[in-house]
Amino acid sequence: MLDIPTSTEPALLERTGREPLHAASHLRRLEAESIHILRETAAEFRKPVMLYSIGKDSSVLLHLAMKAFHPGKPPFPLLHVDTTWKFREMIAFRDRRARELGIDLIVHTNNDGLSQGIDPFTHGSARYTDVMKTQALRQALDLHGFDAAIGGARRDEEKSRAKERVFSHRSAAHRWDPKNQRPELWSLYNTMLAPGESMRVFPLSNWTELDVWDYLLAEDIPIVPLYLAASRPVVERDGALIMVDDERMPLLAGEEPRWRSVRFRTLGCYPLSGATVSTAATLPEIVLEMMASRTSERQGRMIDRDSPASMERKKAQGYF
Amino acid sequence: MSYHEAPTIAASDAPRLEQDDRPTLRFVTCGSVDDGKSTLVGRLLYDSKTLLDDQIDALASESRTIGTTGGDFDFALLVDGLQAEREQGITIDVAYRFFATKLRRFIVADTPGHAQYTRNMATGASNAELAVVLVDARKGVITQTRRHSHILSLLGIRHVVLAVNKMDLIGFDGDRFAAITAEYLTMAGQLGIPQVQCIPVVARDGDNIVTASARMPWYTGPTVTAYLESVDVSGDVSQRPFRLPVQWVNRPHAEFRGFCGRIASGTIATGETITVQPSGRQTRIARILTPGGERDRAAAGESVTLTLTDEIDVSRGDVLTAGPAPQVSDQLAAHLVWFDDEAMVAGRRYLLKCGAASTGAVITTLKHRIAIDTMAHENAATLDANQIGYAHLSLDRPLVFEAYRDDRDMGSFILVDPISHRTAAAGMIDLSLRRATNIHWQRLAVDKSVRARLKQQRPCVLWFTGLSGAGKSTIADLVDRRLAELGRHAVLLDGDNLRHGINRDLGFSTADRAENVRRTAEIAALFVDAGMIALVALISPFRSERELARGRVETGEFIEIHVATPLAECEHRDPKGLYRKARAGELPSFTGIDHPYETPQAPEITVDTSEMSTDAACERIIRYLRENDYL
Questions:
Q1: B235 lies in a domain?
Q2: Taking the complete model, does pTM exceed 0.80, yes or no?
Q3: Are residues B507 and B623 in the same domain?
Q4: Which residues numbered 374-433 in B keep a CB inside 8 Å of some CB on A?
């Protein structure tokens, strides 16, 4: 009567070089906590949605959601805010994953911004991010009336995120008020909302970047191939390696795309995502490289560099 | 087997990686403002080589521009991540940071020192297994140290590191350290914190943080890091009885009905018998689905989906249990830490969340408040923000729980203000005040709240008690008319009239009088279930019978109205000539003459028609209903 496989994948050890996780392991504990948060969200909100950014954290989040509601499907759709500047491989991966898993995928683009011709090169990353990401997200949440948006942010990513609750309240104007957050004790979440207010929910709050990679490896979770090293055309700009993903990227004087073996630690809009020189072409190699790394993943993200408190300000305005 | 799918990344020739299973210790740092909490955490991150090159570069540059340490690394900038914190050089909210040593991983919650942000300190401490309490060596144990330690003990934290910081500013004085240590240990003993390790440190310079300080050779104990790496914090909840609060019912198709939740305590295996609480129904475990696949056993901490051998009613908020029964009660006593700027109000309704269950709750009595400096229990009517007290609560429906000291997940709750939606308080259940019985009720799809919403009113019983001739029926009739004018749906149950119908078989013996009250109470409860306001006018002379009637409806649904007209006045009026007959010996067992009337001790409303008109009495009742949100 049930279409559930009844044994673990025998080939896991061969494919990943790892035994399956045991029940009391570090990653299983993180997994249990995240699944608890996802189920609370489904149970307590009228219309939740999962923000799907196609990156590795989203891959983990989606995997956890599939587990939390197995053998059913997650009782919420995915929402991707498409700036139209994502890597082409990301879009292909997104559409394939939604199809394979049979999940509703909502893609939203800020058409006002598009018709104004907002792009990351001429308008600067701050304005571009505000229009094509922050405003676009707010539009999409309002349009569909979502009262809870599940995101893949982690507390180890950035200093203002280290301060944020698992269930993070937003005003009707989508504002985060960091000085007046609700107390959040134990695993008890105050999910009460007034009309128009919403919640951001972060099931991966207590995961670190290494945990994410470790889990991707242990659970053999598909990720966008851009995370793995390959020869790609890049230019060096402001100290970062930017991949020339399509013909829209204007080359500055003296810039000549060079083919180099690179990979990405975080993925976003290609003009704003710096690559790392690497030859790590498999997940185990990436985990080994991660353990030896001396820089943080956000170093490759151009949007956090605008000013020291830029993330907090963007969040206060409704970004994520 | 759980959800799994085909791999897309081939890695068969990859190097083999061992699973990294260093255990995680979650701890919290607390203490007063400027004791150096954030500096200590920054130091731990730096010395454990957790900080990466770009983060160290950023720290160096920010220390120069906005730091408070004159160009040296200002480690507090690593954790004070909010703009307002960096501008003011204080910590407002808890920051979670991650680091690891060879032996352990750590998640540290760095919490604010200001009293006004105590709620954020409690937030950080609630999930911790250990606390590092900082004191400034120059100041020693101060009020905020006491407040934080008290909250730590209430939250059940059994391991404390007392870090006596800024030892350099007291010339590394070992005697002063010993004096502070002695004072703290005395307090910890009173609070029941079983394990305290005292360490003299200079967080800014790293003395006794990772490496032993050469400046304090008289101290021979462990460094902070060495202690954090080695302390045994295990308290094995898997040894306790099985408890699973049901979060979510998974019903993807007709053949599958699974109950999802994280196991709070104990272990469970397929085939074992479980009891669903609060209904008390029993069944057995059919299958156990875990994130790692289908298994025949699961333990505390795991998020699982269970299927049962019988189709029985289980919904979110129920608890699957095995072994000794948990507490099931709608009356409990708990420690409260008040958070909201709006003070606690006894008698006001809050929303209580415990596990996956939510229910309305009223704080019936504040038994005492803690005076932080002396730890004395003082009498108080209310709790202000950041105060601690002990209270009795009455819930709208029975809750399944354990004492907090036995089970954190099953014994903790929060109170949410139903209007502002702020988290008003955290609660730690001490004990049950009344054991609810396990009677399985026929669950009906259209319940009282649905019916009440249809009528746009809050159902309740108005129970008029008093001597014959006191004016009960007259006032009840006036209230009934007023309610009709206000468009409310009410019904009047008059004792005399009921004796012509449903109670016609009853006489006036003590047993028959009791049965008369019981039937009337049942009828009133049925009307409340139907969403109605039931007015009962009945002498009902015995306190126990009125309490029984009160118990038939939920807390807050029973309003006792004592029509307290004195006997002399009633007898003087004697509208039905009954007193005259009773005095003449024609009516034996007449209340007030040769049969007792037990005066209500705490009626919701008292009216006396010898002092006020029946219209005024009616208006007093209507006003009460308005003021208490019944109308």
A1: no
A2: no
A3: yes
A4: 408-409, 412-414, 416, 418, 421-423, 426
